[in-house]
Amino acid sequence: MRIAADSHSNMDSDVVIVGGGPAGMMAGLLLARAGISVAILEKHGDFFRDFRGDTVHPSTMQLLDDLGLLQQFLARPHNRIDRAELYWDGRPLQIGDLTHLAMPAPFIAMMPQWHFLDFLRDEAEKYPGFRLHMNCEAADVVERDGRVTGVRLTDGRAMHARQLTLLCDGRDSIARRILPVRSLGAPIDVFWFALPKSGDGDALRGVVRRGRLIVMIDRGDYWQCAFVITKGEGAAIRARGIADFRAQVAAVLDAAAPAEVAALDAALPDFDKVHLLSVSLDRLERWHKPGLLAIGDAAHAMSPVGGIGINLAVQDAVCAANMLYAPLCEGRATDAYCAEIAARRILPTRIIQGMQAAVHRNMLQPLLRGELGGDDKPPLALRLLNRFALLRRIPGYFIGHGVRQERVNTPAAPQ
Ligand SMILES: Cc1cc2nc3c(=O)[nH]c(=O)nc-3n(C[C@H](O)[C@H](O)[C@H](O)COP(=O)(O)OP(=O)(O)OC[C@H]3O[C@@H](n4cnc5c(N)ncnc54)[C@H](O)[C@@H]3O)c2cc1C
What we know:
Blueprint: E1 12-18, H1 22-33, E2 38-41, E3 55-56, H2 58-66, H3 70-74, E4 79-81, E5 83-88, E6 91-97, E7 108-110, H4 113-124, E8 130-133, E9 138-144, E10 147-153, E11 158-167, H5 175-178, E12 181-183, E13 188-196, E14 204-209, E15 212-218, E16 222-230, H6 234-240, H7 242-253, H8 258-262, H9 264-267, E17 275-278, E18 282-284, E19 288-289, E20 292-294, E21 300-301, H10 309-329, H11 335-368, H12 380-387, H13 393-401
Parallel strand pairs: 1-2, 1-11, 2-8, 5-14, 11-20
Antiparallel strand pairs: 3-7, 4-7, 5-6, 9-10, 10-11, 12-18, 13-16, 13-17, 14-15, 15-16, 18-21, 19-20
Helix pairs in contact: 1-4, 1-10, 10-11
The structure holds flavin-adenine dinucleotide.
């Protein structure tokens, strides 16, 4: 039985999606496009959040191409990154190359996440089954006879899901109150800030110096900078004051970005311009229960290492839509389908989180303890990448395709 998209009351839908981030908006678009009625609840009034992760990878753009939307997407303001380089104590090393990828967009599109989400919303709103409720926060799930049947909102109202509640509410998800979580530990935190850009530089740039790492992401006229610190060190750094922080930044960037160092006083007058991200690495041990499925950061909080979180969340959403649209159309979206989705997506999650944990353990922790850098040569793997251009395609391939790349196979119902 196909359920007509408009056959529901204002507070009822086949699928209630909690969270209008990359996972929720992509799932909402695909399901509404396939003719399912979907309500997305987003607790904020808009998508604007700075330093939220702005990397749209080739695998995500492949999906937009599958949907015939890539050119419209690329018409929105963005800049493109297709190489990664690392300055190791002043020595430039080439470590990644995406230019060889046989994909419709062989580069990372740097687009503020709110533009990406606006784009998905604009497309999704073309379908009659799609509804987006902004300023609408879910407080908890509603259960009846052991099955989740929707959510209760913070204003006391209930939102009923006829078939499925899809939790896409990020790493502080309400799923974490009802499903077991396994923490993998994260020994780092990150300070984010912006520096005006001088000169060229169109690559993703890491700078290692004096036991510190700053990652600089080219944003056209400025660099988005991530200053990696030991977990919990943020309060002590703040207590030492902004002048001390600027001095630390300058000590790392002095050789790789001298013009940016000269602009530091004006760019970082106080800590209001510096944002602390507490890094977590964890995942749910079980992503579903009858009537409920969690995907994206709600199911697995990712480290910023590799800038992979948005794209993994989007891939989860595509997998969920691919496997659920037919049962949803027929009114039989049982827990068994959610179990299949979780089983399929746990593999890439484990592999990517395992690699992030290895980078934390083998590179970032030793670096922050002062055991790497200084007079040391760069690690062998970095030297090999720098020496052999062909090897640089391996990280490029991994970033471009991800692990277990999903492709859209949901149909477009007549509009
Ligand atoms: C500082 C920072 C930098 C990052 N950089 C990158 C990067 O460069 N590249 C990358 O790929 N990833 C990056 N990430 C990770 C990336 O942002 C996440 O992995 C990705 O956004 C996950 O998408 P999601 O849709 O699962 O969850 P989120 O993006 O967290 O979206 C969850 C949404 O749910 C809403 N919400 C939460 N609770 C509720 C509720 N109870 N009711 C209603 N709505 C709710 C939130 O407002 C939010 O809009 C970064 C993360 C941070 C914090």
